[in-house]
Each structure stands twice: as structure tokens, then as C-alpha cells.
């Protein structure tokens, strides 16, 4: 079946730095990628939808300038957390559709 | 806006016991309902889904769910759990644009 490869699985960064998370669709083309954030003991919250070749659409309350999303090709979507702060520490998951999810990235900002 | 409520935060049971996880939703449009499982250290996997038709849906690993429109519910069931069913379970409602709204999740711990 379809597979989305997400990297890195874990990352620790210092406050003020930026972190890039990549999601690649393997063996299929993903024109759309959904990015979710999962807080501890909480549900997954949709952050934004990336669309190949066009601007991402962000959910209400999500800072566009902090969470930069790029979908430059049909097989790669990236989420960059800019100027990261400890409150950005979370588990980030990408999804190509409602059945294909990346393995997630645990971000810890220290 | 759609929302999903999962009643149980943590369920602990013994092997061979029956499992039922509650899920209620609110959504004004056509309902697409999902149950996902997340095993420790692994990615989300689809257990089953309901779009239309038979309200009793059978999924993988012996799970099933029943859509009850009048109760806005989509409860997940398994007659006899195994230790390997220990995981986090998420109910979700999907809209026509493929976005998902998830419930808070239920941690299921199965004791051998």
C-alpha cells in the first residue's frame, strides 16, 4: 500500500533555531499533504494543508510565519518550525490522505 | 464545525475480555467516520471506516464499529482482546475536503 516516509523521527533543538520536517510519498504522488500536531494526552489537531505548487492553507489559530509549509513536488512536503520555542515541542504527523500517515516527528525545543 | 468526543481516556482490561470504546460526533454534513490505532512507537493505522450503507462496519484485526445515526455515535468493539491490542485508539470524523477531526484518543492497556 501507499507509504509516507517522515523524517526525522525525533529532533531536539535549541530555542530560536529552526527545524525542518520532511514527508515523502513513496511509490505514489501526493498532491495534498495534511499536517497534524499531537499534544501529550490530547488529540491530533490539523494545522495546515499543503498543496503541490500552491500556497498552503492554514487552520484558524496556526501561525503561518512560524510553521512554514512547502510542497515543491508531488512526492515531498516539508514543515519548518521557525524560531522554535519550548511551547512548540510536540509530535507532528503528516498525512497524504485519510489512510496514509507518516510515522511522526517528536520535536523537543530546549 | 465538526467535533468528536471519546468517552474513555484509559481502559485497562485482561486478555479475552470484550472491548467497547465510545465515540460521539457532531457534524452537520455527510458523515465519514473512522477509527485509527496507534501502536507504541508506530504510525497511525486505519482500523475501519464508515461512509454509507451497512451501519455495522467490520475492520482489521477483528474490530468492528456500529454507526447509530440517532445517537451520533460510532462505537468501536472487539469481542476478545489480545495483549497485542494495547495501543492508542482514535475516533475521527472526516469532511468532504479530506480533513480529519480527531477525538482525544483512548489508551487501551491489555494485561496478559
Task: Describe the 3D structure.
- Chain A is an all-beta fold and about 110 residues long.
- Chain A contains no helices and 10 strands.
- Chain A has strands spanning about 5, 10-15, 20-25, 30-40, 45-50, 55-60, 65-75, 75-80, 90-95, 105-110.
- Chain A has a 6-stranded mixed beta sheet with strand order 2-10-9-4-5-6, with no helix packed on it. In chain A, strands 1-3-8-7 form a 4-stranded antiparallel beta sheet, with no helix packed on it.
- In chain A, strand 7 (about 65-75) and strand 8 form a beta hairpin.
- Chain B has about 110 residues and is mainly beta.
- Helix content of chain B is about 0%, strand content about 55%.
- Chain B contains no helices and 12 strands.
- Chain B has strands at about 5, 10-15, 20, 25, 30-40, 45-50, 55-60, 65-70, 75-80, 85-95, 100, 105-110.
- In chain B, the strands form 3 sheets. In chain B, strands 2, 5, 6, 10, 11 and 12 form a 6-stranded mixed beta sheet that branches. Chain B has a 4-stranded antiparallel beta sheet with strand order 3-9-8-7, with no helix packed on it. Chain B has a two-stranded antiparallel sheet with strand order 1-4.
- The chains are: A mainly beta (about 110), B mainly beta (about 110).
- The interface of A and B includes residues 34, 46, 93, 97 and 102 of A.
Q: Strands of the biggest beta sheet of chain A: in what spatial order?
A: 2-10-9-4-5-6
The Rg value of chain A, from CA coordinates, equals 13 Å
Main beta-sheet strand count, sense and barrel state of chain B? 6 strands, mixed
β-strand number of chain A: 10
Class per helix and strand makeup of chain A: mainly beta
If helices are DSSP runs of H or I spanning 4 or more residues, what is the number of helices of chain B? 0
Strand content of chain B: over 45%
Amino acid at each position: 500500500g501507499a507509504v509516507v516516509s517522515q523524517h526525522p523521527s525525533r529532533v531536539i533543538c535549541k530555542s530560536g533555531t529552526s527545524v525542518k520536517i520532511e514527508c515523502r510519498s513513496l511509490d505514489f504522488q501526493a498532491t495534498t499533504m495534511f499536517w497534524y500536531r499531537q499534544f501529550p494526552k490530547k488529540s491530533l489537531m490539523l494545522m495546515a494543508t499543503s498543496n503541490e505548487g500552491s500556497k498552503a492553507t492554514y487552520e484558524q489559530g496556526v501561525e503561518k510565519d512560524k510553521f512554514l509549509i512547502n510542497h515543491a513536488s508531488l512526492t515531498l512536503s516539508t514543515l519548518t518550525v521557525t524560531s522554535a520555542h519550548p511551547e512548540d515541542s510536540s509530535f507532528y504527523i503528516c498525512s497524504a490522505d485519510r489512510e496514509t500517515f507518516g510515522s511522526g516527528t517528536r520535536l523537543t525545543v530546549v | 464545525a465538526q467535533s468528536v468526543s471519546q468517552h474513555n481516556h484509559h481502559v485497562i482490561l485482561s486478555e479475552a475480555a470484550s472491548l467497547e470504546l465510545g465515540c460521539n460526533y457532531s457534524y452537520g454534513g455527510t458523515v465519514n467516520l473512522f477509527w485509527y490505532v496507534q501502536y507504541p512507537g508506530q504510525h497511525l493505522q486505519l482500523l475501519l471506516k464508515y461512509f454509507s450503507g451497512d451501519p455495522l462496519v467490520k475492520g482489521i484485526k477483528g474490530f468492528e464499529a456500529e454507526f447509530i445515526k440517532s445517537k451520533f455515535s460510532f462505537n468501536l468493539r472487539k469481542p476478545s482482546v489480545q495483549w497485542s491490542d494495547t495501543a492508542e485508539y482514535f475516533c475521527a470524523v472526516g469532511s468532504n475536503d479530506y480533513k480529519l477531526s480527531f477525538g482525544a484518543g483512548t489508551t487501551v492497556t491489555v494485561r496478559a
